[in-house]
Specification:
6-stranded mixed sheet, Transcription Regulator spoIIAA, single chain, alpha/beta, 3 helices
């Protein structure tokens, strides 16, 4: 089980086992991103090899540079599992009108093999 509550500086992270969805949402600029994301990396190393499907749902309004590196590491781990035959996909939501967030998602998408959707999110629109 993976469940991390959001703070003012870090996103909420929750694995919805019943739907095989790993959801990360909020802002990500903790004091030490690598320490914050360590439980996510540990969970992925343990659980990902046994998962046949997983959808990563992202809605990150802002990421600092170290969080960006951590997110790239998460995506690389998922992409490696996709290449070995699992049904892995990404749905990256960005706030409509925030073109910088859309550009960042596109930069990540360029390096991935797995299905990767970039979707605008209107104010008040639910993600899941």
């Amino acid at each position: 089980m993976l469940h991390i509550e959001a703070t003012k500086y870090s996103p909420s992270i929750h694995y919805h086992e019943d739907r095989a969805i790993l959801e990360i949402s909020g802002e990500s600029h903790p004091e030490n991103s690598f320490v914050f994301f360590k439980p996510v990396f540990d969970w992925l190393r343990t659980e990902l090899p046994g998962l046949e499907r997983l959808t990563l749902v992202l809605h990150i309004a802002y990421m600092n540079s170290s969080s960006t590196k951590c997110m790239l590491d998460v995506l690389d781990m998922l992409d490696e599992r996709f290449i070995t035959g699992a049904d892995i996909r990404v749905r990256w939501y960005y706030d409509a009108g925030n073109e910088r967030a859309a550009d960042l998602a596109e930069e990540f998408q360029e390096d991935m093999s797995m299905p990767f959707e970039i979707l605008p999110l209107e104010p008040g629109e639910p993600i899941l």
